[in-house]
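User: Reviewer 2 asked us to show a designed sequence for the structure in our supplementary figure. I'm pasting the structure tokens here. Could you produce the per-position amino acids so we can include them in the response letter?
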């Protein structure tokens, strides 16, 4: 089985060393490079073409948000997972807008972080409900002005329901239970939403739901007209 190629980006050598040691003990992950700054991360991502970039946010010079934007624009092959300290980091939402496929919190266990890397490498978005709900409460009110409502044109009422539940952090199983429909049906709705809204993944469906006002910071559903 081919290993997932990982680029570690953090200005703290101890953080990189801890992850490198743990990854070395896995059979399906390998560290192909390390960077201590955003600019170095962009250069190495273009040179090494890793499958996943584990990105810190607060770094001297180019921060992780700008580095993420450059990496995803420049290569298109890599996926980025933010690794940050949630309690004092106000830039997580900005990193998702820049194209990151999810985020990890530094106080998670190393095994949870490794699991998150695997999820993103498999093409999914890391959007654990418990963490996502905290993120939404903290950052939903700090977005740019809502985009025109027309972004939801062509989305059916049922798809709006599914999108609302996604934005509230529910998993596919929880959505199926809430709407009393099958898992396959939920997956179908999610796929159609990704296509209709031009979203990269599930994380970006959440962003669209908040930016268009479908879901508000308080958790109430916004206007649907």
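Assistant: Here is a per-position design you can include in the supplement:
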């Amino acid at each position: 089985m081919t290993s997932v190629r990982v680029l570690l980006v953090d200005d703290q050598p101890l953080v990189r060393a801890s992850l490198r040691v743990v990854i070395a003990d896995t059979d399906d992950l390998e560290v192909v490079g390390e960077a201590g700054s955003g600019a170095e991360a962009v250069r190495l991502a273009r040179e090494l073409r890793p499958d996943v970039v584990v990105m810190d946010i607060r770094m001297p010079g180019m921060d992780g948000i700008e580095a993420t934007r450059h990496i995803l624009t420049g290569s298109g092959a890599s996926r980025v997972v933010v690794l940050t300290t949630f309690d004092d980091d106000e830039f997580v939402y900005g990193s998702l807008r820049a194209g990151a496929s999810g985020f990890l919190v530094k106080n998670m266990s190393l095994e949870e972080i490794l699991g998150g890397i695997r999820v993103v490498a498999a093409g999914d978005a890391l959007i654990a409900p418990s963490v996502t709900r905290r993120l939404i409460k903290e950052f939903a009110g700090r977005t740019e002005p809502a985009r025109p409502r027309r972004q939801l044109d062509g989305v059916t009422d049922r798809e709006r329901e599914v999108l609302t539940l996604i934005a509230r952090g529910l998993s596919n199983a929880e959505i199926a239970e809430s709407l009393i429909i099958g898992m396959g049906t939920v997956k179908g709705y999610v796929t159609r939403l990704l296509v209709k809204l031009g979203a990269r993944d599930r994380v970006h469906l959440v962003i669209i739901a908040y930016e268009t006002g479908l879901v508000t910071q308080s958790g109430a559903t916004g206007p649907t007209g």
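For the response letter, you might also mention the following. The chain has two domains: 4-126, 141-211. Confidence is low (pLDDT under 50) at residues 145-150.
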